[in-house]
Amino acid sequence: MRIGALVTAVGVLLAALAAEAFAASDVRGVRLWRAPDNTRLVFDLSGPVQHSVFTLAAPDRIVIDVSGAKLATNLEQLSLANTPITGVRSAQRSADDLRVVIDLSAPVSPKSFTLAPNQQYGHRLVVDLFDQGSAPPATQAPSVAASAPPVPVTPTQPPPKLTPVPNGKRDIVVAIDAGHGGEDPGALSPVKGQYEKNVTLAIAKELQRQINAEKGFRGELVRTGDYFIPLRKRTEIARKKGADLFVSIHADAAPRSSAFGASVYALSERGATSETARWLADAENQSDLIGGAGNVSLDDKDKMLAGVLLDLSMTASLSSSLNVGQKVLSNMGGITPLHKRRVEQAGFMVLKSPDIPSILVETGFISNPNEAKKLHTANHQQALARSITSGVKQFFHENPPPGTYVAWLRDEGKIAAGPREHVVARGESLALIAQRYQISLASLRSANRLNGDVIKVGQTLHIPATALAAQ
């Protein structure tokens, strides 16, 4: 009798588990985001689902069949302005099978994937509709398991920077990346309704305005509105704009609400310089999992070559990143407390562009109630942007790219050359630095009172003017 009762109990339990596993999930909400080249629909689900997507023409439509789902929200509340979507309708094909039809004003290329729950969201079905002429990235089967960030590869397409022209006067291009956006709100503030993605966009727009006010400089926004951009695509956008510098703006959170102060970060390929740097990098690199980037496929045949090229180009880029980062940090220290007084380093995915000097600016801790209030004010945002602009100008006045208006001003003697500094990066030698600045090794030793050629990573070297070095 006991064995029979046990078998019966186990059977009932398994049946209950099976029923729960195959129970229909509710579509609890639908959100829509518009980006410059695509429209994103996010279906919030109470559990996992299977789905398929196909297109129909005459008229253009997208059909989404969701197995194991019921609609528990109102699709009519979606705002479809400035999108190719003219209407969204649905029908319950059976008790557990939902069909959603998206009516379109123009054909699009769809891409879809599901995302498992994380700290901010439950199960999600993401459908991206790419405008014609903007094909979706090639993907493998999407994976949402947290893993180490993939090794960065050198882009197969070179940056579209113009060949330096003698006496050229092009603008220095600064790509300004407002962190997070759209589906990824970033860090949450204790101030109700305040999200990191909104603060960073406001500061980024103000920074662009101030940079554009400087003759010879042009600021380009990577993200112009409230939509999600995968981390790797942010650097691709900067490269397409011909960026000479990439500045990523953030306002992050820490486990302790008492943490305060601004910081500037550069890339580290060999570990973080502090526990805070490591924690923040881990948090920022989760953006693709939160925002839903899918799993972008890289071209395997280029990886070995890319790795070699990366090593050759990263050293010079990292040195410039540390240099401009220190100037920005010093200027920020004049208007807000600093969390660290030196440029920190960690493995931020968004900084892994081998050909563009890149820094990540933490404008403050949005998890700190006092800093959150300041970050929300226009006056503080303007002051932060002003300090970043000053640091960027100082760097490029000392190190103007050839063929730019600022380089022409320097060559014509219309701006003071001023003292130049170089922050030593891993893998650099004194001879390599002297060659880069076109000065003699002896003059570099003399300017820094060096008895030999031994230098340390992070050491700041004074670079003598060319005329002085030639004496």
UniProtKB/TrEMBL annotation:
<feature type="domain" description="LysM">
    <location>
        <begin position="420"/>
        <end position="463"/>
    </location>
</feature>
<keyword id="KW-0378">Hydrolase</keyword>
<feature type="compositionally biased region" description="Low complexity">
    <location>
        <begin position="136"/>
        <end position="148"/>
    </location>
</feature>
<feature type="compositionally biased region" description="Pro residues">
    <location>
        <begin position="149"/>
        <end position="163"/>
    </location>
</feature>
<dbReference type="Pfam" id="PF01520">
    <property type="entry name" value="Amidase_3"/>
</dbReference>
<dbReference type="InterPro" id="IPR021731">
    <property type="entry name" value="AMIN_dom"/>
</dbReference>
<feature type="region of interest" description="Disordered">
    <location>
        <begin position="136"/>
        <end position="167"/>
    </location>
</feature>
<protein>
    <recommendedName>
        <fullName>N-acetylmuramoyl-L-alanine amidase</fullName>
        <ecNumber>3.5.1.28</ecNumber>
    </recommendedName>
</protein>
<dbReference type="Pfam" id="PF01476">
    <property type="entry name" value="LysM"/>
</dbReference>
<dbReference type="InterPro" id="IPR018392">
    <property type="entry name" value="LysM"/>
</dbReference>
<feature type="signal peptide">
    <location>
        <begin position="1"/>
        <end position="23"/>
    </location>
</feature>
<dbReference type="InterPro" id="IPR036779">
    <property type="entry name" value="LysM_dom_sf"/>
</dbReference>
<dbReference type="InterPro" id="IPR050695">
    <property type="entry name" value="N-acetylmuramoyl_amidase_3"/>
</dbReference>
<dbReference type="InterPro" id="IPR002508">
    <property type="entry name" value="MurNAc-LAA_cat"/>
</dbReference>
<keyword id="KW-0732">Signal</keyword>
<dbReference type="Pfam" id="PF11741">
    <property type="entry name" value="AMIN"/>
</dbReference>
